[in-house]
Design a protein that fits this description.
Layout: E1 3-9, H1 12-28, E2 32-40, H2 56-83, E3 90-96, H3 99-109, E4 112-116, H4 125-136, E5 141-144, E6 155-161, H5 164-177, E7 186-194, H6 204-207, E8 214-220, H7 225-235, E9 240-244, H8 258-266, E10 271-274
Parallel strand pairs: 1-2, 1-4, 2-3, 4-5, 6-7, 6-9, 7-8, 9-10
Antiparallel strand pairs: 5-10
């Protein structure tokens, strides 16, 4: 039974990179069907309460903008579908609805989700799609940066912080990543170490799967640990980062943890995350 990858497409300029990343991921896991999803927000959902009245003219304008965006993304998909080795296993999906609901619905039917990393000042559809993918689907999520240049999965860095709050999420991310590591030439474990704590060791989840890993210890200090992770990943020449995604408190599911938030905002290599 083939796996299913859901590629959540939003901005036309990023669509080719997302589809290329989905193709690479499909290759790493031994083949998959790709559902390319575009979500159109209903016009009534774009109007804030008390902001303005949704007139017929304004509704038509919103729908025209949405149709133009969808057509541009579909053109990228069509061009990709002609050349992809996946052939008939790629599917175009165009749905109108709230992005959180649509990504949750389609994401739970998939095995993997691919999304674009949002721009610094983009707090719209892309951010809502990422949060829904991470925190409502229970699926591994590959976040693709605008700087994607080619295939990935040969030199992989795994971020690990040895504390109970992060262990569960990191373990789930690593379990998903194991399917992507069959062709990895190098696997680096980036382990955070707080002052006074014992020296980190290779986690059992990695040693029990006989995965050859090189351990690198990163001190956890006053600076952003996410910055240290990305800097070390670059120093090692990593082409993909695996990290657990977590929130500050289970009752505040949209309040991202500091490392998760930093990596989502700054990563310039593909990041495989799971909550």
């Amino acid at each position: 039974m083939p796996s299913v990858i859901l590629a959540v497409l939003d901005h036309p300029p990023a669509a080719d990179r997302l589809l290329a990343a989905a193709t690479c991921l499909a290759d790493l896991i031994g083949g998959a069907r790709i559902n390319a999803l575009l979500v159109r927000t209903p016009p009534e959902a774009t109007i804030l309460p008390g902001d303005e009245v949704l007139t017929l003219r304004r509704e038509a304008e919103i729908r025209a903008i949405g149709a133009s965006r969808a057509a541009a993304v579909k053109a990228v998909f069509d061009a990709w579908a002609v050349t992809t080795p996946l052939g008939g296993t790629a599917r175009w999906v165009d749905v109108e609805g709230l992005v959180e609901d649509v990504v949750k619905d389609w994401g739970r039917r998939a095995d993997w989700i691919v999304v674009e990393r949002p721009a610094h000042h983009d707090y719209g559809t892309t951010w809502h799609g990422i949060r829904a993918a991470l925190f409502t689907t229970d699926r591994p999520v590959l976040v693709v940066p605008s700087t994607l240049r080619g295939p990935f999965g040969r030199r992989v860095a795994i971020a690990w912080r040895d504390d109970r709050r992060n262990d569960e999420h990191t373990t789930k991310a690593v379990l998903a990543a194991l399917r992507c590591l069959t062709r990895a030439a190098q696997v680096h474990l980036l382990a955070g170490l707080r002052e006074g704590a014992g020296a980190p060791v290779i986690p059992a989840i990695l040693s029990e799967h006989d995965l050859p890993v090189e351990l690198h210890v990163l001190p956890i200090g006053t600076g952003a640990f996410g910055a240290a992770l990305l800097a070390e990943a670059h120093r090692l020449g990593a082409d993909m980062l695996v990290i657990g995604a977590y929130v500050h408190h289970p009752l505040h599911g949209w309040l991202l943890g500091g490392v998760t938030r930093y990596v989502l905002a700054h990563a310039d290599l593909p990041v495989l995350m799971r909550h």
